[in-house]
Specification:
Elements lengths: L18 H8 L3 H9 L6 H14 L5 H8 L4 E6 L8 H13 L3 E6 L4 H13 L4 E5 L5 H9 L4 E4 L9 E4 L2 H14 L5 E4 L7 H16 L6 E2 L7 H13 L7 E4 L2 H14 L8 E3 L16 E3 L2 H16 L11 E3 L3 E3 L5
Parallel strand pairs: 1-2, 1-3, 3-4, 4-5, 5-11, 6-7, 6-8, 8-9
Antiparallel strand pairs: 10-12
């Protein structure tokens, strides 16, 4: 019972604008409004504009939970990414979300921070909500996650990797080849003492594949790989600084350093200025990721640009094709190999 002068608590859902009321204001049927939210591609543009105006005017919010329970499927696509705050996945996330939203689907996101255990928890929670599809990053999963993915009754996509022998739909590239691409570039420019700096974040197995590609190229050239592992608790810029200082103290010092990502490489470039080292005259620097700041550094950073945005667009398109929201020509391609691009700037 409410106390005197205490505002009456509104029952949840009471006074909520209904779909039928939106339909009445937009002068269309309730079925058309429902289709606007669930299958917007089947509603003509003039009707979409009328319904959108009514929705905005009335502040209508569709009850996705009720709709999801009724159909045993929501309009949510779940995605587990290693690092939400990292710039390397930003374009993928934005392109994936933008493409989905065009067809009335929304993105549900979780970060594993390169932890198989955290990924397992996220996958279990997401599947419990019965999403329309599930997207995971790379192929490195715990046994429990592998089992859940194999038994999932929704489309499963692995992004940022390309392993044709795996059953999931693949959208990505071969990290081993990305490492080879960068190392061959340095060899072609005459560098012989090339070091590789791993990610300071444990669990980044894709970076280790790029390291292996680098090592393979050096072995073929008759040269020895030279790998530096930063402290696991070091922030990326700090890890890059520590790597540069430790490597350049050696005799002979490397004449080029490949870094697992652009954050590490940027830390090294900034540290080189404090140390009075000239880049690339004293040591060349190569990154991975082509982060937004790479071309703004002094000297500008040479790097490998992954197909970040294309991964997001293609992955969303394949999901939408599986769900029948986007028409596909013939069979839906399960294997989608995209290309990395070498970006040569002043640092090499």
């Amino acid at each position: 019972m409410n106390k005197p002068n205490e505002p009456t608590r509104k029952r949840r859902g009471a006074g909520r604008v209904t779909l039928a009321e939106v339909a009445r204001v937009a002068k269309v049927s309730s079925i058309t409004v429902s289709r606007y939210f669930n299958q917007p591609e089947q509603v003509s543009e003039p009707l979409r504009e009328r319904i959108q105006a009514a929705v905005q005017q009335m502040g209508y919010v569709p009850n996705r939970v009720a709709g999801g329970l009724a159909s045993a499927r929501g309009r949510i696509v779940a995605l587990v990414i290693p690092n939400i705050s990292g710039p390397i996945f930003a374009d993928t996330l934005q392109a994936f979300s933008d493409t989905l939203s065009t067809f009335g689907y929304q993105l549900l996101l979780a970060s594993s921070y390169f932890s198989q255990e955290q990924e397992e928890q996220a996958v279990r929670a997401f599947l419990g909500w019965s999403p329309a599809a599930l997207v995971v990053t790379s192929r490195y999963h715990s046994p429990a996650t592998e089992k859940m993915l194999a038994e999932a009754d929704v489309p499963v996509v692995e992004i940022w990797d390309y392993v044709p022998e795996r059953p999931a739909l693949q959208v990505g590239f071969r990290h081993f080849e990305a490492g080879q691409l960068a190392c061959r570039c340095l060899l072609d420019k005459g560098y012989q003492r090339i070091a590789f700096v791993q990610n300071s974040v444990a669990g980044d197995f894709s970076a280790l594949e790029r390291r292996d590609g680098y090592a393979q190229v050096l072995f073929e050239a008759g040269l020895e790989p030279w790998v530096f592992v930063p402290p696991a608790d070091a922030a990326p810029f700090e890890a890059g600084r520590q790597a540069l200082e430790a490597l350049m103290r050696r005799t002979p010092a490397p004449d080029a350093i490949m870094f697992a990502n652009d954050n590490l490489a940027a830390g090294a470039l900034l540290a080189s200025q404090r140390a009075g080292l000239r880049v690339p005259e004293d040591v060349a620097v190569m990154g991975f990721g082509d982060y937004a700041f790479a071309q703004m550094l002094l000297p500008s950073l040479s790097t490998v640009r992954p197909p970040s945005r294309a991964i997001g667009v293609v992955a969303a398109q394949r999901v939408l094709q599986h769900l029948g929201a986007l028409a596909g020509e013939g069979d839906i391609p399960r294997l989608n190999l995209l290309a990395c691009q070498l970006v040569v700037r002043e640092s090499i």
